[in-house]
């Protein structure tokens, strides 16, 4: 596995938060309203099945578990975690390296476990944590999307409270207010640009 070194100023940006907080929605808003050539959105690998409307290679790389674990064991994933005691999720290392070498910010959507693993490997990574306006609002969003069984929903609700307690591990905490997606995405973009301005010559090594 060859080491890689990013161009000056290119960052690993992690967007994290509990299930149902709106991570995908914020990332889509970043694409739509902050379409910058130096933003590269890294597609996560997962062993779960696609949900309605999800496209392989766009929303996730949907992989059989054996293939996912082979990538993990070969060191091809920057992090790999089994989330909610069920499916595996992981970040493809090569995609992150390519983005950084091109001078792009590698923007990753990762759960709390994976974010801490990457922070250990990439101390200069920028960690942004999305929080809901309240637990009640979060649980309402989870119920409304109707993508989990009753048992799965209970696990996600229980884990959400645990994950919210980890927000102090992040560089920035951003509240994703209901109906304020564009404003939340703008705040995330502002944080990224402020961080780059503070460290224009910093180079990430993987």
Structure write-up:
It is globular and about 45 Å long. The mean pLDDT is 91. Helix 1 packs across helix 7 (181-198) and helix 5 (135-145) runs antiparallel to helix 6 (150-164). It has one domain (12-196): P-loop containing nucleotide triphosphate hydrolases (Rossmann fold), CATH 3.40.50. It has a 5-stranded parallel sheet with strand order 2-7-1-8-9, with helices on both faces. A 4-stranded mixed sheet has the order 4-3-6-5. Strand 5 and strand 6 (87-92) form a beta hairpin. It is α/β, with parallel strands linked by helices. The chain is built from 7 helices and 9 strands, in the order βαβββαββαβαβααβα.
Helix content: 40-55%
**Name given to the CATH architecture:** 3-Layer(aba) Sandwich
Q: Major sheet: size, sense and barrel closure? A: 5 strands, parallel
Q: How many strands appear in the DSSP assignment?
A: 9
Number of domains: 1
Report the average pLDDT across residues. 91
Give me the secondary-structure category.
alpha/beta
Residue runs with pLDDT of under 50 for 5 or more positions: none
Distance between the termini: 10 Å
What order do the strands of the largest sheet run in, or round the barrel if closed?
2-7-1-8-9
């Amino acid at each position: 596995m060859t080491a890689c070194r990013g161009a000056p100023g290119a960052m690993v940006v992690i967007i994290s938060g509990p299930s149902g907080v709106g991570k995908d929605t914020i990332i889509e808003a970043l694409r739509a309203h902050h379409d910058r050539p130096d933003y590269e959105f890294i597609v996560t690998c997962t062993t779960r099945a696609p949900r309605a409307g999800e496209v392989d290679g766009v929303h996730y790389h949907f992989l059989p578990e054996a293939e996912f674990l082979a990538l993990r064991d070969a060191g091809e994933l920057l992090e790999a975690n089994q989330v909610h005691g069920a499916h595996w999720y992981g970040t493809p290392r090569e995609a992150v390296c390519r983005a950084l070498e091109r001078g792009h910010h590698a923007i990753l959507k990762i759960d709390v476990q994976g974010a801490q693993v990457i922070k250990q490997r990439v101390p200069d990574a920028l960690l942004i944590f999305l929080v809901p306006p309240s637990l009640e609002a979060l649980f309402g969003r989870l119920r409304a999307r109707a993508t989990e069984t009753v048992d799965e929903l209970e696990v996600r609700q229980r884990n959400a409270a645990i994950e919210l307690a980890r927000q102090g591990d992040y560089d920035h905490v951003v509240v994703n207010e209901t109906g304020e997606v564009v404003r939340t995405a703008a705040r995330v973009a502002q944080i990224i640009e402020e961080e780059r301005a503070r460290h224009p010559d910093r180079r990430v090594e993987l």
